[in-house]
Amino acid sequence: MSSINGPATIDQLVQDTADHGHTITTRLIRDWTEKGLLDYPQRRPAGKGHGSRPALYDEKQRHLLQTLLHHRKQGVGIRALAQIPVGIWIYWGDEFIRLRQVRSAMATWAGDPRASLRHARQIAREILQQFDHPAATPAARKALLDTFTDAAYTGRVDLTALESAARTVFEPGFGTLHRVVGHLGAPLTVDSQIGVIGARLRAIAKLTAHEFSDGDFNNARHAHLLGYAQYVRDQPFLAAQESADHPGLYEPVTPESALNQSCDHLLTALGLGTIYPERTTDFARFPTPQIAFRM
User: Fold this and answer.
1) Over 90: is that where the pLDDT of 61 sits?
2) How far is 162 from 147, CA to CA, in rounded Å?
């Protein structure tokens, strides 16, 4: 196999993949570039009146392509593949992935829920799993699912209706009491989850409308890393005290889990930054931590 070293043209990228046991076309590379899985290559003018020479993908993008193809061979879809460059940007920085690529990858991952009711309902089912209680009725689950779906599909969020529907599923029979799952230092409650859901839905709307600035993205990354570093430190203690009816509530952080949740985490941080802009100023006082992943 040939080694990957230095920048390369699109034809050389195709040869890279052949050398590593994959078969692709230049059309696939261009398609993945538009979707943010790969960054756009650097153009090279040939001089006045001479057009341009073949554009070059840098060495890091050549390695990224091999990573993407490895996961695609395992059956990973385009939406999930988009999380790879986003995760690299979050945890390893701009030296490896540019923000312009992150924007495209996030758009690919998020899509436009309004264009697909089926997609919106899939998002709603994922959220419903966080609230489910064995004593909840099928009617209550359906009401919550429909409320979530409508919010994801239309982009309009009625947090009061969402909270009411969530409590009938998460707190059946609790009356005026509020259910708390997990350790009090990092509890799962309706209020906490509704706040996150509201932030995510607002972020999707702003992401679709291209309303986030570069500063918003960088602030969101910084805020996420601060919170995630604290969770990594606390996770062993939290996991040791989690309840038997919610095993795995405090999952350990691994490179794989961080990558698989990278778009979710960035979207949430973007949304929370919109709702609580004063937190951006507070977080800016702290240096950016390095995440110590458990292998």
Assistant:
1) yes
2) 6
Distance CA 20, CA 3 (A): 10
Q: 152: how many CB neighbours lie within 10 A of its CB?
A: 25
Mean pLDDT taken over the chain: 87
Cα(66)–Cα(29) distance, rounded to whole angstroms?
12
- Sort 4 into a burial class: Cβ within 10 Å, 0-12 / 13-18 / 19+: middle
Do residues 125 and 53 touch, judged by C-beta distance below 8 A?
Answer: no
SS3 at position 43: strand
Instruction: Measure the CA–CA gap between 178 and 190, rounded to whole angstroms.
Output: 8
CA distances 37 to 13, 30, 66, 108, 166, Å, are 14, 10, 11, 9, 35
Q: Higher model confidence: residue 37 or residue 46?
A: 37
pLDDT confidence of residue 130: 67
Whether 136 and 171 have beta carbons less than 8 Å apart is answered as no
| The two structure tokens encoding residue 29 | 């590379």
Among the listed residues 250, 223, 159, 224, the one whose alpha carbon sits nearest the alpha carbon of residue 197: 159
Strand ranges (DSSP E) for the chain? 42-45, 52-56
pLDDT score of 62 more than 70: yes
Write down the pLDDT at residue 294: 64
Q: What is the DSSP letter of 181?
A: B
d(CA 125, CA 141): 10
Residues counted in the chain: 295
Residue 215 corresponds to which tokens in the numbers above?
A: 């500063």
Read off the pTM. 0.85
Amino acid at 205: A
